[in-house]
C-alpha cells in the first residue's frame, strides 16, 4: 500500500505553510460495486454470489457493495450497513444484523414478514423458528379456574383468517390436515424480539 501526503490546516482561509502540518496516510485499495448482479437471471446470480465471495477474499482490498437484495448482502458481506433516507440506521456483522434488526422498519427492509405493531410505539418480531404448528382444534391462549389468580395478557393481536404457506417438511408435521382445517400455533417466547416501531417516522 502506498502512502500519500495530507495537509491539516486549522483555518483553511488563512492557511500558510507555517500553520499547516503535513503527515502520511495509507492509501488502501477499495473496490466499489453498485448493484453488480441486478440485471442477471436468478441462476447466474446464485452462481456469481459464490464466485464473488471467493474473489473478494483473494483481492486483498476492501469491497463496498451496494445492494437491495437481502440474499446478496448476506452471502457476500462480512459486515453490513443498513441505510434509510441517506442515513445509516444499523451496522454490524451480517448475520447478526439479519437475525436481530434494531427496529421494525429495518426488520421489514431485511425481509422479515412477521412484524406486529404493539402499543407505545413498539413492535414484536416473530422469527420463523419461533412458531410451532399442530393439527387439531384451537385451544385458548389463556385460561384459568374461578379460584385461581388472574394472569396478565402481554399481547393480543386479532389477525382474522390466515393463510399459512408451508414447506413439505412443515406440512408433514400437521399429519392429514387439509386446507381450511383448524390448526394450533404456538410461539416460543424466548425467541421473540421487541423493538421500536419506526415504520411511520419518515
From TrEMBL:
GO terms for molecular function: ATP hydrolysis activity. Gene3D superfamilies: P-loop containing nucleotide triphosphate hydrolases. It comes from Deinococcus wulumuqiensis. InterPro entries: ABC_transpr_MalK/UgpC-like, P-loop_NTPase. This is ABC transporter ATP-binding protein. GO terms for cellular component: ATP-binding cassette (ABC) transporter complex, substrate-binding subunit-containing.
Amino acid at each position: 500500500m502506498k502512502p500519500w501526503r495530507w495537509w491539516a490546516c486549522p483555518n483553511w482561509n488563512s492557511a500558510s505553510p507555517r500553520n499547516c502540518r503535513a503527515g502520511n496516510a495509507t492509501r488502501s485499495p477499495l473496490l466499489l460495486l453498485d448493484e453488480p448482479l441486478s440485471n442477471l437471471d436468478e441462476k447466474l446470480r446464485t452462481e456469481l454470489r459464490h464466485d464473488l465471495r471467493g474473489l473478494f477474499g483473494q483481492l486483498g482490498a476492501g469491497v463496498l457493495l451496494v445492494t437491495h437484495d437481502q440474499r446478496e448482502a448476506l452471502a457476500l458481506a462480512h459486515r453490513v450497513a443498513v441505510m434509510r433516507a441517506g442515513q445509516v440506521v444499523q451496522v454490524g456483522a451480517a448475520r447478526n444484523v439479519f437475525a436481530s434488526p434494531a427496529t421494525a422498519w429495518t426488520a421489514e427492509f431485511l425481509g422479515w414478514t412477521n412484524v406486529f405493531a404493539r402499543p407505545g410505539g413498539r413492535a414484536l418480531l416473530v422469527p420463523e423458528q419461533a412458531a410451532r404448528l399442530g393439527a387439531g382444534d384451537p385451544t385458548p391462549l389463556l385460561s384459568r379456574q374461578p379460584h385461581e389468580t388472574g394472569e396478565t395478557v402481554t399481547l393480543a393481536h386479532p389477525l382474522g383468517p390466515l393463510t399459512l404457506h408451508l414447506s413439505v417438511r412443515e406440512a408433514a408435521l400437521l399429519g392429514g390436515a387439509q386446507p381450511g382445517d383448524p390448526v394450533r400455533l404456538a410461539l416460543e417466547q424466548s425467541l421473540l424480539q421487541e423493538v421500536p416501531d419506526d415504520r411511520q417516522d419518515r
